[in-house]
Design a protein that fits this description.
The chain is mainly alpha-helical and 325 residues long. 74% of the residues lie in helices and 2% in strands. The chain is built from 13 helices and four strands.
């Protein structure tokens, strides 16, 4: 895992330096390295890092979650909707939307473990249901916080502490908690065991259903937290577009960070670095003139394909070495 982390860190440095050279040095401008741009890059990396850590837990168990973007939409639109349309206090609306995220994860885990549906099918349906539900309850109307009353709340996404964006500190807390959970607790070892061989894990006495449900709960909870941060950062949310394709960024970051889509492998630090790589790549598309902004999703597709291909090659080499021994 150390080699994978060093590898993705090297890729991050390469992409970052290349973007700086082609966007600033060769053009004589100061756009990419502008302090505002850098803080915005760090803020977006933090928010995407949070949702990427969530999907990493699901991928480690051998599952997948395609509903992340729609969960972000439901929570991100629903939060200001409760505040402004129903005049709920923040202390009630915020825990409510986060609990909704937890319930969604529990529902996904139940369908996967008890009903024995494929994670792809469950979360693909979730992608459609939560988006449609959000558009239905809001009648496709943009939801925002207005001016004045909730300006202090927006500090959670746009404010700074010790010169760093607040989402960075939230990501740091989530990262530390995730590293401890995955590497220092029994349930973390259970997650890896289930991903490696669920049947063997079950025969060894592990309650595999509970472990898988836990992974989906973590994923949807962090997606909900991300939804709150995204809407606070943007100031408003449109049900038709909020969170669109965010699941692709999260999955790509997890794959880049060392999570095998077969399950059983993953490192939280690698996932966070993978999220940073995705955001710097996005920055290169924006700030390098000769790269068309229309190919952003092509970049994401190439990144995911490259990650999966590398994972397959490593698996084959490892299997060949085991046979030779």
């Amino acid at each position: 895992m150390i080699k994978k982390i060093l590898g993705i860190l090297g890729l991050l440095v390469f992409v970052y330096v290349a973007t700086w050279i082609f966007s600033d040095l060769l053009t004589g401008r100061d756009t990419f390295m502008d302090p505002y741009t850098q803080k915005n890059l760090l803020r977006r990396t933090a928010m995407f890092g949070i949702i990427s850590i969530g999907v990493a837990f699901v991928i480690i168990t051998g599952g997948i979650d395609l509903s992340i973007g729609s969960v972000i939409c439901l929570i991100g639109v629903g939060f200001p909707w409760l505040l402004t349309s129903f005049d709920w206090p923040v202390w009630l609306a915020l825990p409510t939307v986060l609990i909704v995220g937890i319930l969604i994860g529990g529902w996904h885990g139940f369908l996967v473990t008890k009903v024995r549906l494929q994670p792809f099918v469950v979360t693909l349906c979730g992608l459609l249901i939560y988006r449609g539900l959000t558009r239905g309850i809001t009648a496709d109307q943009k939801q925002g916080f207005g001016t004045g009353k909730y300006d202090g709340l927006k500090w959670l996404a746009s404010g700074e502490v010790m010169g760093m964006p607040v989402p960075f500190w939230i990501l740091l807390i989530v990262t530390v908690a995730a590293v401890i959970f995955l590497n220092r607790t029994v349930y973390g070892r259970y997650l890896l065991a289930v991903g490696n061989n669920e049947e063997a894990a079950k025969l060894s006495g592990i309650n595999t259903d509970r472990v898988v449900i836990c992974a989906y709960v973590i994923c949807s909870f962090l997606a909900g937290l991300g939804g709150v941060l995204f809407v606070l950062d943007q100031g408003s949310a449109q049900p038709t577009s909020m969170g669109n394709f965010y699941e692709l960024y999260a999955i790509a970051a997890a794959v880049l960070g060392g999570c095998s889509l077969r399950g059983g492998q993953g490192t939280i630090i690698g996932v966070v670095i993978g999220a940073a790589v995705m955001q710097v790549l996005r920055g290169s598309i924006i700030y390098i003139d000769w790269i068309s902004p229309n190919i952003e999703f092509a970049f994401i597709g190439v990144v995911i394909l490259a990650g999966v291909t590398a994972d397959e090659m490593v698996r084959r080499v490892a299997a060949r070495r085991r046979l030779e021994r």
